[in-house]
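ok posting inputs for the protoporphyrin IX containing FE job
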Amino acid sequence: MCFGFVPNIIVSSPEAAKQFLKTHDLNFASRPSLEAAKHITYEGKSLTFATYGPYWRNMRKLCTLELLSNLKINSFQAMRKKELSELVNILEDAAQEQVAVDLSSRITSMSSDVSCQMVFWMKFEDKEFDERGFGGVIQEGMKMAVAFNLGDYFPYIGALDLQGMTRKMKDIAKVWDQFLEKILDDHDKPKEHGQTKDFVDTMLGILKSGDSEFEFDRSHIKAILMDMFSASAETSATTIEWTLSELLRHPRVMKKAQKELEQVVGLNKMVEESDLESRGTWPHEAAKYISYDQRNLSFGAYGPYLSVLDLQGLTKRMKAVAKVFDKFLEKILDEHAIPKDPGQTKDFVDTMLDIMKSGVADFEFDRTHIKAVLLDMLAAAVDTAATTVDWTMSELLKNPQIMKKVQNELAEVIGMDKMVDESDLASLEYLDLPLELDMTEEFGLVVTRANHLKATPSYRLHLN
Ligand code: HEM
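and the output
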């Protein structure tokens, strides 16, 4: 099928997908040539947008050896620890003063600082880059890369820039180019005695020696530096932001994570990178037994159960819980099998049973799948709602200043002469913060939060 002038192949069966992704992988490995890649990544010279071939293979090897090998990654461990400590200090101060922290900004800037030092070996202030900062410019570039651009499908119309996108892309490219030129100029200056060579020096060395087996000029170095910086800073920050958002929305999981941290690491030291290997395995195990072999929505993505020894007796307990649920859900399904009175409306269970009986679903869907989804809905609705209220009340009781703010809002917005109605909730903006976390997404090459994540921290560490 053609999108404008661009031929596209839609693959919809596992056999065809295997042909494209395995058998003929090399023919289809390159990303499409996009206007964004042309304007922002120096005519597609970055690793992300370069076509598959000797240049991509050699650059990938160079990046892996000089930047991403275990040895190099470990050599930056102290720097990562220092950056994280600075963030923890900010959270400690905010906890003492009971003020909200803009976690999105703080995490983005920590991630940029880490990536800057890893790729360029020095830290830069946001304003040295552009008034939008690193995060702002990278996010704009990521959005441009996936936005619908007429020029990608109708090359002749693209030249007219009817959507104004080329102008915006050139603007982003200019900001990057000025910044990267400055870095290359700094690295061109003679080194002091004993100063070690960094990633930029290595690439400049290859350029000066002229003995690369592929075309390699200043623009290739700039494209790769931009690639490494933006691919690492934005992805890492966004992953942390979404993880924290999900933990804040699911207090039960947050409590479990906190408990694990207390037991495995303790509260009198910061988590070290080496501690990460001692993570627990409870989610995988619980999924197998309680959720009908992971057929429900929440546990579908987890991997296979590894241990059969059941040394902790957990399997036995989970199987017992699963049996109770199964009996209850079987009863519900049996009751729904009784023919309906005329005019009686169908509910969610009826609809699922209809789909199962009609056989129209183009995926496997039997009685166990229906029970798994019902279990999901029940557990997700009952437990999370009750726990969210429990947790919010405990946090309010623990933080008298926040409780005072909530009480003031209630007095001002609702008044003290009536009970709070469900319809009043929309106008209680401050109370809404702990109860309802906004999870709106912003579409881009990396899907980020649309709105910044803000939270008031409680400090639990006892560092000397
Ligand atoms: C949590 C962090 C990260 C996530 C979620 C992530 C995710 C991804 C994904 C989904 C792809 C596309 C893979 C494909 O098309 O097959 C990708 C590609 C890439 N990532 Fe990451 N990434 C992360 C961190 C990093 C870091 C730290 C770097 C570099 C320092 C990096 C550099 C790259 C590069 C250069 C590519 C393009 C590779 C190519 O097409 O040849 N990423 N990443």
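notes: The mean pLDDT is 84. Residues 47-48, 227-228, 231-232, 235-236, 239 surround protoporphyrin IX containing FE (CB under 6 Å).
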